[in-house]
Amino acid sequence: MPAPPVGVVGLGQLGGSLAAALVAGGRPVQGWDVDPGARDAAAARGVQITRELSGVVVLAVPLPAMAGALDDLAIAPDATVTDLGSVKRPVLESVGRALGGRYVGGHPMCGTERSGHTAVDPGLFAGARWALCLEPDTELPRWLRVAEVALAAGAEVVPVTAEEHDDAVAAISHVPHLLAAALAAAAAEAGPLALALAAGSFRDGTRVIGSDPAFVRAMVEGNAGPTAGALARVQEQLTRPWAELLADGHAVATRQQGRRPVRVPLERAALLALGRSGGAVTRRLAAFVAGHIPEDIPDDEVPDPA
Amino acid sequence: MPAPPVGVVGLGQLGGSLAAALVAGGRPVQGWDVDPGARDAAAARGVQITRELSGVVVLAVPLPAMAGALDDLAIAPDATVTDLGSVKRPVLESVGRALGGRYVGGHPMCGTERSGHTAVDPGLFAGARWALCLEPDTELPRWLRVAEVALAAGAEVVPVTAEEHDDAVAAISHVPHLLAAALAAAAAEAGPLALALAAGSFRDGTRVIGSDPAFVRAMVEGNAGPTAGALARVQEQLTRPWAELLADGHAVATRQQGRRPVRVPLERAALLALGRSGGAVTRRLAAFVAGHIPEDIPDDEVPDPA
């Protein structure tokens, strides 16, 4: 069985980079974008521009555009639809509700503060973790088809539920955006001297809000509950004695973790347990999925607790 | 009048890089470090290793070692002593009290999460802002001598008081360290899945606490009052509506500010006003200081408010 075709809706930084990565791997990719400039740039990279998409259809549009992303497109009735949105419960409730078992939510943990088709990079996904949702009604063969696309782009696949995903990214992505904004706004309040002295630690701490604030707003507001909870946990940390807090934060930021291969049965509970343990399905799986669906995943990996 | 000799006490990342930058500019540099490895590395770069230092003596040791940095060294009686410590009031009260008008506090806004003589980089100061303290009793000719050294290393000099400096760095350096630690510790609390999904925004937001936690602790505890105040201002920002906060933070993080040359009389109040406005004394001043002290600084620069 050949790998299914891939259709990418939205050819900005994420969608354009995914299309470029797959084209670079010799795979036929179709795509569409409402912006003619993005369509032309993708066409120049070898993407077939069309509104008729089939196989694995990837919605790579900003969150506010997600619910209407398929309007005016002709999607094959048996297509599997996935997305790259940075929150998963709202997309599951909008796009997922309409598509039922054909929808598999996804979120590659990459991208930069840049956006649009001029920020396309075929290497964007190399080594990145790509969260892929396994809900109770997700059809496993469709999940595997999307996983294969993520692996083909160079990413590793982390099996999650939408709820687990949204809680996790609140802590490691959405709260960092709010902290960065608060840090920058407070520094501006401190005055021009403070901003003139701002160097490495300030630039690192605020880089993430160089992103389009409309995108960031949609992200944190689309995940308001988990983000508020994660922010409260950061504020609780800030009440600890500084010496203790700094030692713990240093240990987390500099931890070195080995990895070891494990054998995980290809079923939902086991895959989700792999994700919860910090593990991921690695690229070596791809050949199996493209050919047939094996009983076990032979070489996914989890962090070594030793 | 030739540029005065420079003696560097502590040849780790900052001191070793300063010595290397000056040597690269053809200037004789003396230096000392309690660690024979650091001495050997500096000697190999052309630093004359000696305990007898004169001219501008730069204390480039960690904050806890600052008060005893001159023990066992022979410092010329007319030497000007400066330091590179990341807080200025405590050093002013310890080193400064003993030295009186011969002490000029300094703090170059550079350095990385690495430390030690293996992290030496002669380009470390290129383009960096270097805060230099002008207290009521600071002797201006000594301040200018230290400024000339900072400029010779490639930095720009920001005139400040120790108090202004400590308030400013609380907002743009010390609080970012605490936020990074709290972010990392809270993410670890969220579990292995969250850490496995951690990508760019988390790495940027926590990079700064890769630094030795003992150094970071000395820094924030040595500036506890201003840091607590700046942290409270960040927490106040975090109570704002997210959309507003993100828009403001984005505007600060992405601001583009032009610069224009201004003429500033060489006297304390005018220099401090330059610093407060976000301005800096730039390298073009160096030739004047090495030769003679001009009445006006002709080409320092302030940000263009337009």
TrEMBL record, chains A, B:
<feature type="domain" description="Prephenate/arogenate dehydrogenase">
    <location>
        <begin position="4"/>
        <end position="276"/>
    </location>
</feature>
<dbReference type="InterPro" id="IPR008927">
    <property type="entry name" value="6-PGluconate_DH-like_C_sf"/>
</dbReference>
<dbReference type="InterPro" id="IPR003099">
    <property type="entry name" value="Prephen_DH"/>
</dbReference>
<dbReference type="Pfam" id="PF20463">
    <property type="entry name" value="PDH_C"/>
</dbReference>
<dbReference type="InterPro" id="IPR046826">
    <property type="entry name" value="PDH_N"/>
</dbReference>
<dbReference type="InterPro" id="IPR050812">
    <property type="entry name" value="Preph/Arog_dehydrog"/>
</dbReference>
<dbReference type="Pfam" id="PF02153">
    <property type="entry name" value="PDH_N"/>
</dbReference>
<dbReference type="InterPro" id="IPR046825">
    <property type="entry name" value="PDH_C"/>
</dbReference>
<dbReference type="InterPro" id="IPR036291">
    <property type="entry name" value="NAD(P)-bd_dom_sf"/>
</dbReference>
<protein>
    <submittedName>
        <fullName>Prephenate dehydrogenase/arogenate dehydrogenase family protein</fullName>
    </submittedName>
</protein>
<comment type="similarity">
    <text>Belongs to the prephenate/arogenate dehydrogenase family.</text>
</comment>
<keyword id="KW-0560">Oxidoreductase</keyword>
